[in-house]
C-alpha cells in the first residue's frame, strides 16, 4: 500500500473512455430461430443504435450496419424501434422515422412512405402481422397517435393508405398485443392529463377487416395497467396496481381478473419508452417476471408461487422475450456490468444462465464499490438511497480526512435506481469520491404511495428527500459535510437547481439539461409531457403562482455555490434556453460556473466523445471546487 493520498486524487485505471465504452444502452432483444438478436447503442459510432445477433456457433455481428440506426422519436423517448419478422429485421430509422426491413446481409427496403410528419415505435410482429404505434405531426394542433398495421411486402412505401389504422381515439396508445390467431387485439391507452403510471385503460377488441371496434376495458378505473400478453385463446395476462403495487393479473371472458402470486413488490414501472417488458410466459404456462423493491429480482411464477432465479441482475431488469422454456433477461449487475442473458428453464430445478452480450471490461471487481442501502428519515417519510463508498485496492486516504460525496438525482422524476455500481459511479469512487444515489419520493420501485408522494409537490418533496439523504450520510460520519455536491439530469436537474436555492445541504451542483423554469417547460415541452406538470405541480392557469414560486430561476438570487451546466443543443424536452437562463443568472450573481453546450446532442448524451468530455468535466469541476488534484484530467475553467 502506498502512502495516503487525498480523497478525489486516488490513481484509477478507469478512464472516461472506458466508461463511455461501457455505457451502451440495450434496446430490446429477441429469439430469432437459433439466434439471439438485440439492440445496443454504439457510443463510438455517434451513439447510433445497432441491432446485433449471436449465432448458434457463438459468433456475433451487426445486422444493422453503420450508419443505419434504429431509433424512434415517438414521445421523443422512442422505444420498440425494431423487431424481428420471421428472419428479417424491421426497424424505425433514426434518420427519417420511416419503417424499413432488412434481411441479414441484404439491403434495406422501405415499408412506410416518405412522410416527415409520421413516426413509428412499439413495433410488434405477431400472427403474421406487423403492428406499430404511429405518431403524426403537422396536420393537427397536437400530435395524433394510433395503432397501425403495416404491410410487410413494401406496398405501403408508395401508397400511404395501405398503412391501416387498427386502433385510435385516445391521446396515447401503447403495447399492442395480437392474439395467436390474429383475431383479437389488446392494448394500453391513456389521455391527458394522465401519465401512464397515473392511470391507463387496458382495452381488448375483436378485429374485423383490420379495424378495431371500441372494445372493452379490462382494468378498474384509476389503475395503471401495462403490458398485455395473450396466454391463452381468450386469456390475457397483464400488469396492474389496484393494490398499490404493480402485480401480475389474469383475465378471462366472463370472469373477474385474478392476481397471480401477489407481492409487496412491483412487476412494472414507468412507461417512458415503448417496448418495455417486465414479464413473459413460457410455453408450459410458467411466467418469468421482474420484481422490484429497491433492487430488482427475476422470479419464476407457477402455481401461485414465485421462485427467485439466481441471475446476476439487480437493477434495470427487463424480460425481453421468451421462447419455449427460455427467457431473455437484460439489466445491470451489482458489480457494474450490464448485459443480456439467456435463462434456460428446461430443468426447473437447475436453470442454466448464459451471458449473451454486455461486458464491463477487463477491470477487476475490486475497483467497483458494493452498494449499501440507506433508509433515511425525512419530513415526508422514509427516503430510500444507495451508498457507494470510495473504493480502491491500491489507495487509502489520510486517517483524519472524510471523503467528498456526489449525490445523484435520477430523472423522470418517476425513474428508479437499483443497487448497481455503474461504470460512471466507479469512475468517481475509484478516485476517492463517494456516491449517494437517491430514490426520492416520486420514484418507482416502492409502490404507488411512494411515487404519489410527489403529487403536487415537485420542487418540495424531492428537494427535502435528497437533502435528508445527504444529511443522514453526513450524520453517520461517512462524508465530509463541507464537500457534498449534487448532480442530476432533466427532472433530476430541476431537483439539483431547486436544492441549491432552497437548502444549504450542498456545496456545489452539476445540472445536465435541467429544468429551471416550470412555466417555460410547460410551454415548450413535447406533447407526451405537455400535461405532466398538472400532476407534479398543478393545472395551468389556476396553479400559475405555484409554478413561479417553485421554479429555481424565480429564486436565482439564492444561487451561491459553484455550478457546472451541461446541455445538448438539440434537446426537444428541455431546450437550451433553460440552461442559458441559468447561466445568465449565475453570471449576474458572480457565481463561479462553467456552461458546456454539446452540438447535435439531444435529451441525454449518446456520443462517445460527449460522454467522455462530460465525465471529465464533472471530475475536474469537483476537484476545482473541493480542492483536490485530478491527475490525467485537464482543469476546468470556471467563469
What does this structure look like?
- By secondary structure, this protein is an alpha+beta fold.
- Among the domains are: 277-361; 365-626, Rossmann fold (3-Layer(aba) Sandwich), CATH 3.40.50.
- It is built from 10 helices and 37 strands.
- The strands form 8 sheets. It has an 8-stranded mixed beta sheet, sandwiched between helices. Strands 13, 14, 15, 16 and 17 form a 5-stranded antiparallel beta sheet that branches.
- Helix 4 (461-475) packs across helix 5 (491-502).
Distance between the termini: 39 Å
What would you call the shape?
globular
| CATH-defined architecture of the domain at 365-626 | 3-Layer(aba) Sandwich
CATH superfamily caption of the domain at 365-626: Alpha/Beta hydrolase fold, catalytic domain
Radius of gyration: 24 Å
Secondary structure tally: strands: 37
The amount of beta strand, in percent, is 25-35%
Q: Briefly, what CATH class of the domain at 365-626?
A: Alpha Beta
Sequence of strands across the biggest β-sheet: 30-31-33-32-34-35-36-37
Question: Under CATH, the topology of the domain at 365-626 is which?
Answer: Rossmann fold
What structural class is derived from the secondary structure elements?
alpha+beta
- List low-pLDDT spans: none
Mean pLDDT: 94
Alpha plus pi helix count = 10
The profile of the biggest β sheet is: 8 strands, mixed
Helix content: 10-25%
Amino acid at each position: 500500500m502506498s502512502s495516503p493520498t487525498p480523497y478525489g486524487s486516488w490513481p484509477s485505471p478507469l478512464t472516461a473512455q472506458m466508461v463511455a465504452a461501457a455505457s451502451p444502452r440495450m434496446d430490446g432483444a429477441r429469439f430469432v430461430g437459433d439466434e439471439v438478436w438485440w439492440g445496443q447503442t454504439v457510443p463510438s459510432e455517434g451513439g447510433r443504435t445497432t441491432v446485433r445477433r449471436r449465432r448458434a456457433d457463438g459468433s456475433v455481428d451487426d445486422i444493422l450496419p453503420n450508419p443505419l440506426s434504429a431509433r424512434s422519436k415517438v414521445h421523443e423517448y422512442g422505444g420498440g424501434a425494431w423487431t424481428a419478422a420471421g428472419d428479417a429485421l424491421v426497424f424505425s430509422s433514426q434518420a427519417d422515422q420511416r419503417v424499413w426491413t432488412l434481411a441479414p446481409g441484404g439491403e434495406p427496403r422501405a415499408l412506410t412512405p416518405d412522410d416527415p410528419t409520421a413516426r413509428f415505435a412499439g413495433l410488434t410482429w405477431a400472427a403474421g402481422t406487423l403492428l406499430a404505434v404511429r405518431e403524426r405531426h403537422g396536420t393537427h394542433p397536437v400530435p395524433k397517435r394510433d395503432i397501425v398495421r403495416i404491410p410487410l411486402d413494401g406496398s405501403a412505401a408508395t401508397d400511404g393508405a395501405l398503412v391501416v389504422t387498427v386502433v385510435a381515439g385516445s391521446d396515447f396508445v401503447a403495447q399492442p398485443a395480437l392474439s395467436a390467431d390474429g383475431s383479437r387485439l389488446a392494448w394500453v391507452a391513456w389521455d391527458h392529463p394522465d401519465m401512464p403510471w397515473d392511470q391507463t385503460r387496458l382495452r381488448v377488441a375483436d378485429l374485423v377487416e383490420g379495424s378495431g371496434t371500441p372494445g372493452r376495458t379490462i382494468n378498474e378505473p384509476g389503475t395503471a395497467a401495462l403490458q398485455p400478453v395473450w396466454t391463452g385463446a381468450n386469456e390475457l395476462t397483464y400488469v396492474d396496481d389496484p393494490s398499490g403495487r404493480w402485480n401480475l393479473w389474469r383475465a378471462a371472458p366472463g370472469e373477474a381478473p385474478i392476481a397471480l402470486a401477489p407481492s409487496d413488490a412491483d412487476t412494472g414501472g414507468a412507461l417512458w419508452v415503448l417496448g418495455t417488458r417486465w414479464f413473459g410466459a413460457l410455453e408450459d404456462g410458467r411466467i418469468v417476471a421482474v420484481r422490484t423493491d429497491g433492487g430488482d429480482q427475476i422470479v419464476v411464477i407457477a402455481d401461485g408461487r414465485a421462485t427467485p432465479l439466481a441471475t446476476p441482475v439487480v437493477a434495470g431488469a427487463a424480460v425481453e422475450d421468451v421462447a419455449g422454456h427460455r427467457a431473455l433477461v437484460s439489466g445491470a449487475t451489482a458489480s457494474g456490468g450490464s448485459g443480456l442473458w439467456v435463462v434456460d428453464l428446461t430443468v426447473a430445478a437447475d436453470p442454466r444462465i448464459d451471458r449473451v452480450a454486455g461486458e464491463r471490461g477487463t477491470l477487476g471487481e475490486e475497483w467497483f464499490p458494493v452498494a449499501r442501502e440507506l433508509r433515511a428519515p425525512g419530513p415526508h417519510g422514509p427516503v430510500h438511497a444507495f451508498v457507494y463508498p470510495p473504493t480502491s485496492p491500491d489507495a487509502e486516504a489520510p486517517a483524519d480526512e472524510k471523503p467528498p460525496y456526489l449525490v445523484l438525482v435520477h430523472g423522470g422524476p418517476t425513474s428508479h435506481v437499483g443497487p448497481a455500481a455503474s461504470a460512471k459511479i466507479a469512475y468517481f469512487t475509484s478516485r476517492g469520491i463517494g456516491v449517494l444515489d437517491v430514490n426520492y419520493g416520486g420514484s418507482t420501485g416502492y409502490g404507488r404511495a411512494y411515487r404519489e408522494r410527489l403529487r403536487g409537490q415537485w420542487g418540495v418533496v424531492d428537494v427535502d428527500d435528497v437533502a435528508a439523504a445527504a444529511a443522514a450520510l453526513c450524520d453517520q460520519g461517512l462524508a465530509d459535510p463541507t464537500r457534498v455536491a449534487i448532480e442530476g439530469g432533466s427532472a433530476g436537474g430541476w431537483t439539483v437547481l431547486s436544492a441549491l436555492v432552497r437548502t444549504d445541504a450542498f456545496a456545489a451542483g452539476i445540472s445536465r439539461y435541467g429544468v429551471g423554469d416550470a412555466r417555460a417547460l410547460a410551454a415548450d415541452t413535447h406533447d407526451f409531457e405537455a400535461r405532466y406538470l398538472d400532476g407534479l405541480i398543478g393545472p395551468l392557469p389556476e396553479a400559475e403562482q405555484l409554478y413561479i414560486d417553485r421554479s429555481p430561476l424565480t429564486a436565482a438570487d439564492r444561487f451561491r455555490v459553484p455550478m457546472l451546466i451541461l446541455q445538448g443543443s438539440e434537446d426537444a424536452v428541455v431546450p437550451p434556453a433553460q440552461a442559458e437562463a441559468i447561466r445568465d443568472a449565475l453570471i449576474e450573481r458572480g457565481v463561479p460556473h462553467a456552461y458546456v453546450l454539446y452540438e447535435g446532442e439531444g435529451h441525454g448524451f449518446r456520443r462517445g466523445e460527449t460522454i467522455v468530455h462530460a465525465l471529465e468535466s464533472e471530475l475536474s469541476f469537483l476537484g476545482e471546487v473541493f480542492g483536490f488534484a485530478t491527475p490525467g484530467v485537464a482543469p476546468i475553467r470556471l467563469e
